[in-house]
Amino acid sequence: MKPRIRPSYSPPIDQVGVVQRANRFTNRSIKGDAKMQGLKMVLSMIDLTTLEGMDTPGKVRQLCTKALHLHDQVANLPHVAAVCVYPNFVALAKQKLAGTEVKVASVATAFPSGHSSLELKLAEVQYALESGADEIDMVISRGRFHSGDFNYVFDEISAVKEACGSTRLKVILETGELGTFDKVRHASDLAMEAGADFIKTSTGKIKPAATMPVTLVMLQAIRDYHRRTGRQVGMKPAGGISKSKLALHYLVMVQETLGTAWLDNHWFRFGASSLANDVLMQIVKQQTGQYQSADHFSVD
Predict the structure, then answer these.
(1) Is 103 known to be catalytic?
(2) For burial by CB atoms within 10 Å, which of 123, 179, 248, 293 has the most?
(3) Over the stretch 29-80, which tens digit does the pLDDT of each residue have?
(4) Does 200 qualify as catalytic in the annotation?
């Protein structure tokens, strides 16, 4: 394995400029065929997720069924990108989704706190992979990051990526705990240099989760990394995105920051299960002129 070098420098972030730039994306109006195309694209980028202490096999089965049958009365709907579960539910989800293109993602590395030894974290990753996980969502050790122990964070991500091999690794920064855009940029650069295939905002367990300014900072980090290395890295905002209008604004931001190459679920995802129902309601509205009741959709 080629040794990776931890970045020693990340550019300072103009907080006012980032916020103003992100706000401008929310003023875009998307209508007609472009809106329908965007809604279907959003739907195809969603990772349906259940990561609760009360998760049961029945709940995981229901989520997998929803992933395959979003709305059987609406023709030509895309499927979601993945179902994301805890490692002990991976085998079940894999069985339910067998023969389909919907991937099974598993959180790992002591999600959501990240507080555990590297040995146990790698064992959890291995368990998820042996159970059939197509993707691993790891969470960084934010305590180590805040302590300034960046070498540890870098080495940990690198070790997890090595354990994953060809399986795609999403690295969760938990941006709501990082505090500043400068730290978000530094953590993004660190994760990508260490081998992350995706960088992801949040676990969804704390607020604020994903925001447009934070996501813009991460998209700009991806852009600069791609220009420097030629390696394409994906992006996943997670938590706090429940409305289709906001999701469409995210797509505009991705297109104008990274380009159309990232407008695909191989490179961009939404970690927002509740978003699916709102997108489906908007698609039905576009087709029929009427909103369906929320009772027509399953509660995630």
Answers:
(1) no
(2) 248
(3) 888 889 999 999 999 999 999 999 999 999 999 999 999 998 877 778 999 9
(4) yes
HEC string for 30-70: CCHHHHHHHHHHHHHCEEEECCCCCCCHHHHHHHHHHHHCC
Per the annotation, the verdict on 155 as an active-site residue is no
Residue of 137, 189, 197, 278 with catalytic role: 137
> Which of 94, 170, 236, 278 is the catalytic position?
236
Supply the CATH classification number for the domain 15-296: 3.20.20.70
Task: Give the Cα separation of 10 and 63 in Å (integer).
Answer: 40
Which one is catalytic: 66, 103, 170, 200? 200
Domain locations in the chain as residue ranges: 15-296
Give the pLDDT confidence of 34-45 residue by residue, as tens digits.
Answer: 999 999 999 999
Q: Which position has the token pair 């429940």?
A: 242
The phi and psi torsions of 82 (rounded to 5 degrees) equal -160, 165
